[in-house]
Design goal:
Helix content: 40-55%
Number of helices: 6
Strand content: 5-15%
CATH superfamily of the largest domain: Intergrase catalytic core
Number of strands: 5
Distance between the termini: 57 Å
Order of helices and strands: EEEEEHHHHHH
Strand order of the largest sheet: 1-2-5
Radius of gyration: 22 Å
CATH architecture of the largest domain: Orthogonal Bundle
CATH topology of the largest domain: hpI Integrase, Chain A
Structural class: alpha+beta
Largest sheet: 3 strands, antiparallel
CATH class of the largest domain: Mainly Alpha
Shape: elongated
Length: 177
């Protein structure tokens, strides 16, 4: 929720995580530093996200300009109708309603983070890279939290190796093998 358009490097295809957004009654929405120094990070993003972010920025600028003097010009990606920074709970609340409306299995918005990590592990991305992307100071944290997924990946590796070794059982090995 603390992302700003200046955090996006369209040429290098990266997003810099350098702030968070928080809400406190009586104080409202404010910006603060991430939990730890290592929570500040730069992550790579694919071309499709770069294109989407460019389109979104144009859309957002167009909508705010329609408001004239009522529009609040900010560099934030996540804003309210008038350009003010969005309350961090807004996305959480919207996501819960979206899941229910579309009869999808229950998952929290934060649960998408765990889904992301699990998918990266299943695709064989190394744990150090995953830890860096999600802001874990130490890959051991990632290993501890996702050890169940790593066991599945280990079994997949064993199965893959068996297929390579055994090949098609109906086929005789080459004489040169």
């Amino acid at each position: 929720m603390g992302l700003e358009f200046k955090d996006i490097d369209y040429e290098k295809k990266t997003i810099s995580i350098s702030r968070t957004s928080q809400y406190l009654p009586g104080k409202g929405v404010f910006t603060k530093e991430p939990k730890t120094e290592l929570s500040k990070r730069i992550i790579a993003i694919p071309d499709t996200i770069i294109a989407l972010l460019k389109d979104y920025k144009l859309h957002q600028e167009n909508e705010i300009s329609k408001l004239g003097n009522l529009g609040k010009h900010t560099d934030r990606l996540f804003i309210t109708w008038d350009g003010s920074p969005m309350n961090p709970d807004t996305v959480t609340d919207w996501f819960a309603k979206f899941i229910k409306k579309h009869h999808l299995p229950h998952i929290t918005f934060h649960g998408l983070r765990h889904t992301n990590v699990s998918l990266l592990i299943a695709d064989g991305v190394d744990v150090r890279t995953i830890a860096s992307r999600v802001g874990h100071a130490n890959p051991t944290t990632t290993l501890n939290l996702y050890s169940h997924m790593l066991r599945k990946s280990d079994q997949m590796a064993a199965d893959s190796l068996e297929k390579r070794i055994m090949g098609d059982k109906n086929k005789l090995p080459d004489k040169e093998s």
